[in-house]
From TrEMBL:
Superkingdom as given in the UniProt entry: Bacteria
Source organism of the structure: Candidatus Enterocloster faecavium
Domain Metallo-beta-lactamase: 11-191
SUPFAM superfamilies: Metallo-hydrolase/oxidoreductase (SSF56281)
UniProt name for this protein: MBL fold metallo-hydrolase
Gene3D superfamilies: Ribonuclease Z/Hydroxyacylglutathione hydrolase-like
């Protein structure tokens, strides 16, 4: 099993997860050209994909969806609320509505040899979810666009081998930056985005001996930067109520405009 971020940031998100025989994307928020380039770097083509998991309907998660759907006829897995929103987005163009496959939070489904579990997140979208993907005993998760975390989120992120976790913004940068006040309130609210500090605090609840890789993702272009996200998360782990230190784990940042390392599980 392997996972790689093709792109992750406030301007576009697309994550690959796959086994030897099954290949899926979590979101398609970048151009088809960039998606194809990313797939090529890991030895795949668009026609090798088995489906696309959509977390929610915001443009930075669906920008390339219409082209992929038309070109390859891929199944599109999303919640009923997300599908309803996608169906009304003219910017995606026309594609076969029968490609939609409805999924429900906390109800797992199979895509090839991958078992997928969607779980609910709090974000200002119709019916957003994060995804946990298993192949045999190996398990990874993509969890972004969360205004906050609670015991439900913590429970769904236990015993992972790898995770891509949102570390969207630095609170001080956001508060003093150029965004209008209502947008700042939205991002900082319970249906906004996870800050660097909260990403680190969430990690203290899910660290365990077999967690091989932590990718920090969905960084804001205006209110964060890679070194700050990394150092803030590292300090939260080191100062948190956990027997581990940040040096016990491989932690890196998934870039906005570049592929991450390939995480082999």
């Amino acid at each position: 099993m392997r996972m790689v971020s093709i792109a992750s940031g406030s301007s576009g998100n697309c994550i690959y997860i796959g086994s030897d025989s099954t290949h899926i994307l979590v979101d398609a928020g970048i151009s088809n050209k960039r998606i194809q380039q990313g797939l090529k770097e890991i030895g795949l083509k668009g026609e090798d994909l088995s489906g696309i998991l959509i977390t929610h309907e915001h443009s930075d998660h669906i920008r390339g969806l219409g082209v992929l759907a038309r070109k390859y006829g891929l199944p599109i897995y999303a919640t009923p609320g997300t599908i309803r929103e996608l169906s009304g987005k003219k910017e995606l163009g026309d594609y076969d509505a029968s490609l939609y496959c409805q999924v429900q939070p906390d109800c797992s489904f199979q895509v090839g040899d991958l078992k997928v579990l969607p779980f609910s997140i709090d974000h200002d979208a119709a019916q957003p979810v994060a995804y946990r993907v298993c192949c045999g005993r190996k398990q990874v998760a993509v969890a972004t666009d969360m205004g906050h975390f609670d015991s439900y989120i913590i429970e769904h992120l236990q015993e992972l081998d790898a995770i891509l976790l949102e570390s969207n913004h630095d609170v001080r940068m956001l508060e003093t930056g150029p965004y209008p006040y209502p947008l700042k309130r939205r991002i900082l609210g319970d249906h906004g985005h996870l800050s660097n500090e909260n990403a680190g605090r969430l990690l203290t609840h899910i660290l365990h001996d077999k967690l091989k890789k932590i990718l920090l993702g969905h960084l804001s272009k205006e209110n964060n930067y890679e070194e700050l996200a990394y150092e803030t998360v590292r300090l939260e782990i080191d100062h948190g109520d956990t027997p581990y230190t940040s040096r016990d784990f491989s932690i890196s940042v998934a870039g906005r405009d570049r592929m991450s390392e390939i995480v082999y599980i």
